[in-house]
Each structure stands twice: as C-alpha cells, then as structure tokens.
Amino acid sequence: MSSERVFLRRKAVPAMQAAGERLKEHWHRLDGDVRGELLSLFAEVEKRLWAAASDVERADVAIEFLQKLERMPVLAPLLGDILDAAKGRRLRGKRVQVDSQVLETVLDMLADARTVRRSLIREDVKQPLAPPLPWPHEPKMVGDEEEMAGEEPESPLVVERYTDVNFPEQVRLDQPPVPLTVSLTRQPVEWSLVTERVAMELTSGGPEDVLVILRAEDFEEAYGRTMQPITVYPERDSDPIVFFLRPLSLGNKRIVLDFYHRNRNVGSASFVTQVVEADVSVAVRPVSTEPVAVRTSSPGALPPDLELRVTLSDDQRTLHFMLHSVHSEVGVHFTPAGSVRLACPPREHLGHLFDELNILARKRLEERSVLQQEQIRARLESIGQNLHRDLFSPELKQAYRRFRDSLRGKSILITSDEPWIPWEMVKPYDDSDLEDIIDDEFLCERFQLSRWLAGNGLPDAVEVGSATLVVPESGLEHVKQEEEYFQSLGQTGIAVRVPFLRRVSEVGSLLEQGEVSLWHFACHGNFNSERPGESAVELADGELRPSDIVGPKATGVKLARPLVFLNACHTSQLGFALTGLDGWAERFVNAGASGFVGSAWEVHDELAAEFAVKFYDELWDGAPLGEAFHRARLHVKGLDETNPTWLAYTLYGDPMGKARIAAV
Fold first, then answer.
1. Domain 145-301 is of which CATH architecture?
2. 459-661: what fold?
3. 8 Å CB contact between 356 and 306
4. The model scores a pTM over 0.90
5. How does pLDDT run across 551-569, given as a tens digit for each residue?
6. How far apart are the C-alpha atoms of 655 and 448, rounded to whole Å?
7. What secondary structure letter does DSSP report for 594?
8. 308 — phi, psi (to 5°)?
C-alpha cells in the first residue's frame, strides 16, 4: 500500500468531521440540488460506516467521502482548506484511532443534515433525500417508566403542532425508494398532504422527542426504519424526518403515521396513495384537510397496560395489527402482529351478527327456560370464538398466549381505524398447542377493555362540572331509574341542568353553548339500514342524527370536552334498534369528546339502567374509566349473563383516565 494512502487514512476521519461541521454551518447557503446530492451521499456514507468491521475500513469510507466532496466544484470555497489539509504532508501527525466516540461524532454530524427544510422535499429534487440517521443506541423516549418514576414535572409547557406530510399522490411501481417526509409545525401548512393537530406537554419547557410509527401498506421502508423520533421544540417547527418507501404492488395503498409521546398516542395521520404501472406518468396533487381537536396528556398520565393498534387498509377489508406495552414482561414494543383479510368490509361482515344479538337482547332471564338459557349461553360463546378465529392473525394469537395471564384484569386499549368490530365480544379459543389449549373468557370480561378512534390524541381525564339528561317520553319502564339518578347527582357536586331535555331543538341549543360536560341519552335508537352511520335517536319532536353534530354543535363539543353516554334501548312496542354506533362515536370523538359510551347492538332497558348507574357510581368513587366500565359490565353480567346486553357496551376513552368533578 502506498505511503500516500496510509497517510490519508490517518487524516481522513478528522477531516471528515471538520468537513461535516463546515457543511452544517453553511447548510442553508447551499443550493437545493446540492443539498439533495449531499443528503444522498450522507445516506450512503452512514450505511457504510455502520457496516464497517474495522478502523481501516472506516477510514477508507472517510477517504471516499472526501474525494466525492472534492469533485463537487460548488463546495471548493467552503471546504478547500480542509481538503487540502487532509492531503497535505506538512500536516502529517500520529495515527488517529477511530473509536466509538469518534464514530458517534461522525454520525451526529451526518444526522444534522436533517435540518434540511421543506424546499428540499418537493418533487423537483432529482436525488432522493437521505433518511434521518439512527442514533448509535436506541433513543430513550421522554416518559419511559423508569424515567417517570418518582419525578415531578417542572413547569410543563403545552404546545400544539400540525402534521406536515409530503408524499406523491401517485408513485410508479419501478421507482426507487420515494421519500415520505414528516414535520410538526406551529401553523398548518397549506400544501401538506394531510393536516392533523397534535398536542403535548413539554415537562421541562425544553425540546422533547415524539416517536413516529409508520405503517405503509405494501411498501417497504428501504432502510428498515419504521420508527423514528422527531424532536418537538417549544419555539419553532420540528426538523423533518424522512422515510424511504419502495412500492411492492399496484393499487391504492393506505399509509398511517402514529405519534407517541410518553408512550401515549397523541395523534394519527393517514392518507392514500396510488401505485401505478411503470409507464404511467405520476401526478402530484396534495390535499389539505381541516385539523381535528385533540388534547394534551398531562405529565403524570399513565399509558394503558397494552395497546392494540388496528389499521384498516384502503380495500376496507384488511386489518393490520401492532402491539405495544410499557411492561417489559409483555415483550411487545411497537411490534407488528400480522394482518387478516375479511371477506367483506367489517360493517357488512358483522351485520348478520348484530341482527342476531338484537333479538337475544329482548328478553330477560325470567322469560327464558333453563334450556333456552343454556342454548343462548352456548350461542354467545360460539359467536365469540368465531370472532377470534376470523379476526385474530396467527401472530396476534401467539402474542395473546404470552400476555393473557400477566395482563389479566389490566387495561387494554384498542386504537382502530374502524368502529364496527365488536372486539369486546371476542372469546379466544386456540388449540394450536394441544398440550396448552386456550379457552378463555370474552376479552371485555378478562380485561379492562376500551377503544379509541385513530386520528385524535387520547385525552387522559374527563372533567365533569355539569350534566344533562336527554330523556323523551319513551314508554321504557326502567328509564325512570336513570331520571331519578340524575335528579340526585347534584349531591356529588355536579351541576345538573333541569328540566331534562326532550326535544331535538333543546339538545341542539345546549350543545352549541359548550357548557355541559356530561351528556346522557336515555331513549330509543332508530337503525338506518341503508345508512347505518346515520342511525338516529328518537326525541319528542323528531330524530337526532350523527350528522347533526356539526358546525356550532361540534364547536360546543370541542369547548366542553364532554363524556357522552348514549343509552339507546329496545322496546317491543316500537321495534327500534341502534346498531349505528360508528356514526355517533366518530362524530363525538372527532369533535373533541373526552369519552363516549354506546352499545353496538340493542340493550334491554332494565339492564341498561343498571349498567349506567353502576358505571357512574364507580367513576365518582375514583375508579379509572376502564375499571369503572369493567365493574359495570360484570355487574350486569351477574344479573343476567344470557342476555348479551353486558357484552354490547363499548367505551371510547382512556382506560387509565379518571373523572374529575370540576367546579362550574
């Protein structure tokens, strides 16, 4: 080997560091095309540095890096002295060891290239942008359990940011990896593909990391980085992070981004892109959407014991799963858990099931013979086991085997793109291991199960200062129990609005005022078979539909952040049924409600009243939402386990959150 080469090896790594610092200092003076070329070079160098097996190999990487910089004429005024010094024999010195500390410095230098702004992200940049580089160790997220223990937050600063997402509306199947860039900005960005509002509290008043989780249907992340931290600063926009996506098949594909702060989901953003044939010209038409209402999580808020994230593909049939737990013994950390493809969209797939459960809910225990009770009990178990067979992927079934005992009685949050699947009624049965056959209770019986709709961040508490009851004349005997309960609610310190509401106009007017933080509906539901998402509740002067929660009414929900309990019962006289839960849950949750309770199918009026009273009593006694809901469910099951009312109820909210009675 020539003495020149040996000498260059001695000088290459420190020269590489010096060049990086100079580029960092003058980054924004460089032309966009030059920055794009440099970012591609950084990606290549970073990959080779990590793969290098020795100091000699690392030095060779540094030499080639410097040689490529030298071939870029535009950099001569900036780097000429550094490059000359690296080659000049007059600066010969002793050999420099490329130890881990030096390598970390180099990687940090390369990572600083993430400061490139949105001008580098536009479609006219020919070279792909380099992905943000991984830390030499796994980044520690603010709020990890061991970091949170025993610490009191100091001067938390509430910040609100908006997602700035850039990706083509169409990509060709033969394209090289396409950059997906994500920033969190202080103001909505007009050209962002999707705009969602993300809020959080910075406990120290300084910058903190938010973990961004990517799930891209039928795309491969070129560098295997589907999780990246993005730093949120108190005073400015975040630097962008970049994912590189390689398309794998043709068609419309859904891409989902979840944002986690202190292990809690503070927001999600999703969009659809189209993968086209190689010879199709690609069009880019970014679409802007209105931001949605979310809230911060307070520094002391605890994450659920387990979160199941369910993503629905653009085909509306394929469900993708991810599991996450802060408990190390559970063994999942944003872990993919497979996927399943249904024969049809969930709403259609489960329609017949709701019809059957509606019928089973119409009779109480004393109206059935012992034989009928056993038949119904067996039928409910069969329904639950079929749901487990159809909805759980093999990976999810294996994961369930691991956490079923350690999390028994603990909280599970299902954050989903769809509100139709009755996860509460899934009854695991697994004989894949004949020496360890699983035949468990329903999920909602074994765990404190709750849900949330992807998009909004999960509020960590419910502030209840005032309450109202919506109760038209219905002929339901046991609705009187709910009326009496709300009449006595003032003893807890909650201001109850009287007289109770009976008309659509009264409900609309009070919603617009944005002053009521607990809404309880005790009425009939009217199922709309043609538009299930528009299934209405019957009031004295007409119907109230989910689509009515819009405009000033939605603003009122955003202001009040209420807990909404929709207790819509069956009556044999009118034959109404409410199975359009998706419309109501979606409207109230997306408008800003702190929690929503409803039933996925008809509920018996007596059992419905028992459920509501027990749930509220547990809340006022200080139980978290998930625990209070679980106790109410088991209470109603104890009254009549053959009636599926106890399985029908669904909680949208933080299972670890509590109801706080606030002065009005």
1. Sandwich (2.60)
2. Rossmann fold (3.40.50)
3. no
4. no
5. 999 999 999 999 999 987 6
6. 7
7. S
8. -105, 115
